[in-house]
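Convert to structure. Protein one:
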Amino acid sequence: MMSQAGLTGRTRGLLVLAAVSAGLLAGCAKRDSITVGAIPDDYRTNHPIVISEREEVMDVPVGASALRMSRGQRDVIAGFLAGYDTEAGTPMRILVPANSVNAAAAFMIAGEIENLAQAHGVHRGNILIQSYQVTAPEAAAPIRVSYYAMRASTNPCGRWPEDMLAHHDNKHWANFGCSYQNNLAAQIANPADLIGPRKPSPVDPENRAGAIDQYKNRGITPDFNENSEITY
């Protein structure tokens, strides 16, 4: 038969275990539901740089008595064509007004724009010359030149849904990092570089061997000595 002391110890152990279990269950019942990381606090997440196809548009003003493009117009169109990707080969549209007062002049200048585009690497088969109807025939309507190109961009800046001084937890506000991301996206010449690295160029074994030998011998090139400001 079990002694009274053993029974008492076992009873106390069961009571302690029951109390601990009840405390744990009570704690689970009163715990609030908190989702960690639900609100992003990274400007790269709030303002991601996205690669998308965007239409580039430029309007060329044409006078009713114009016979050819001016030098300034050629320079502006050449700058616009600099963003055209000749490897992508997307169609370029030249829209010419049909029923405006400058329709005849616009038709001649559209031919010059086509020749200028071909000189900048645009394939002749990718140039589409079309006409459009204007709502005010008495006005001199412009020639519209457009093409689609891959561009890196992010969402527009200027979102202030709440007071930035109300962030007592020292987290980023909604507009934080937006201008930085926009400037970075505007400086990317080839948006494909964000997708993956380019194919590496072939290795120059002679240059590599020379650099390794120079490092082993702890040599200093004459160019470094001539351009160095250290005299000791």
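Protein two, convert as well:
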Amino acid sequence: MELRHLRYFVTLAQELHFGRAAQKLHIAQPPLSQQIRQLETELGFDLFHRTKRQVKLTIAGVAFLTEVQQIFKQLEKAIETGKQTSRGEQGKLVIGFVSSSAYNILPSILRTFRTQFPNIALELHELTTNEQLRRLKENRIDIGFVRPPVDENVFNYQQVFQESLIVALPITHPLTSVSQINLHSLNNEPFISFPRFLAPGLYDSIISLCQQAGFSPKVVQEATQMQTIISLVAADMGIAIAPESLQNMQRVGVVYKPIIEATPQVSIVMIWSKDNISPVVDKFLDVATRDIDEGLL
């Protein structure tokens, strides 16, 4: 049985006249009659009652017509789905992101993308930079938002955000009374930080900033996520130097202060595999790039 046989059947069922159906199908009447007979033989039941005056569907033909029409509707849907997927308008996108990106650029990009492409399912994973790099190499995520540096031989990337560093203090800390923090005043403070291997670029920027002020931070506690670091600051376990956008995380018990000295600009970059051939990824990159160019982030 071929799809064209089903089309012949549906057309004849609609016209109930071999001549009109053949004309509509752009074939001669005898081949149409022959094809319908072959279909009935293959099915094992009659689809039509034929007389010299009329053609009528049998009861089995009526039931068969209903199911075949559903098949064609499903086929049309499958074709449209395929077209949308090929254009990057439907599918699935897996995105990794460092926790701090959720407080600056990521919400804006996701909001725009979901508005423009509601049929693309987004799967989000909060991951450290090194976890994202590993998953991208394993093709387990499609896009990453990480702290540089990035291996340019393996990934394409684009900078999407830059910001200064600030100090997070427990609300009971004496320095909360000053408007700006002199870094040297943190010389003997207990620091909460993250292990270097998780985000070496950000880690090195913080260490270098302290060393320029004449000291190396005394790290008393490490944590893998920025939210955890800020929570430990709120628990009076120590202080932290963090990206400026962390102020957007309203955490009771924490006060954020700018730094008097000029701080390095720390970045978030969007990365994807050089081997990417996904039209869905291309659509996401277009949206993100447009938001950046328009200054919406």
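The longest helix spans residues 59-86. The chain has a mean pLDDT of 90.
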